[in-house]
Fold:
Amino acid sequence: MSPSAVPHSTASDHFKDDLNLSILGLGVAYPDVKNGPEALDILARRHYPESKALSKVLSINQFTGIDTRSTIATVDHPAVNRPEPPSIAELDNIFRKEGVRLSVSACLDAIKEWGGNIEEITHVVSTTCSNSANPGFDHYVCKQLGIRSNVEKVLLHGIGCSGGLAAIRTAANLALGLSFRHKPARILVLACEITSMMVRSELDSIHQNQEVRIGVCLFGDCASASILSNGVGVPPSTEPIYQLLGWKHDVIEDTEQDLGFDVDPHGWKVILTPRVPMLAAASVQPAFQDLLNSLPRYHKQDLPTTAADFDWALHPGGLTVLTGVEAAMNLTPEHLRASYEIYMENGNSSSATIMSVMNRLRKDEGGRENVVACAFGPGIIIEMMIMKRPSLAIINLPTEDLD
Structure:
């Protein structure tokens, strides 16, 4: 059976015109180290003999479109310069130190922008695909932040690069439940990935199996966070960063073998077939149209109805994913400017990347009021969300409307 791009319509699942869900704070923390393409070359030639597969990977590494990748360590870190790659236990120890540190930093920035008190946080929704310890990393982040022990926590796993948007969707559904009970929701959403220390594991597979594995050319480290509110008890003067209007989750059928992150004694192994850019690009139009159909506000005259009417916060899974979606949706690089910028400056940081793109996009005062956020994960999962930037609605009002 050939893959079917998002076959399950949710057009009958209409969203209310005003969910009163908003993001009030955003925080992003990248590590200080910036590695260019030459870093992979240095490690590869330092530890592995020349081979056809390795030469191919290093050639691809020069043309990913990434200028630098943000990583927790330089190429001289002891963990990646031993005869054997670091074990999964060693990677866990590194994540508990560096991942938790970055996560706390991102969360503090999001909380500071929100302006509320940590005591007001009602839930924490977190995600990672580069750690699977128990208790999860969110436990240690909450302890360092001083979040109350009885705050409900959810840790999402197994969803890879789609995790950041999936975490926001999960938080939104939790918030709607509290709205039904007339209770406030202030939900801390967190995504963190430390992938750079798995470089030796990937290079080992390239050397031993003579496989062309391009994941080693793409990934970096990052933590990102946001505060999601249901509006209950929020002062009327509060200006949201984004208002959430609706969302969609679906799976592209028969694609489980195309995108994954398989567990291994030396961490995780990226599964990324050449079909992924085509599959991703083909899935976006039906998902976008289905989501648009589920939002009554976009059925009204003079509201945007085409992809080009929106700004796009697309997860930069790779250059061909970005250009593929751009072509499929009749967009321009300007529509995807935040995605391109984050990709070029930091690489693909898996689940943590989407909130970084949203953070970059919201700083653009010349942008569009309406925004589509979209990400892909193992499955292949597609996550999509439509949001609005209220501040741009005010900026773009005619002068007489402000009187």
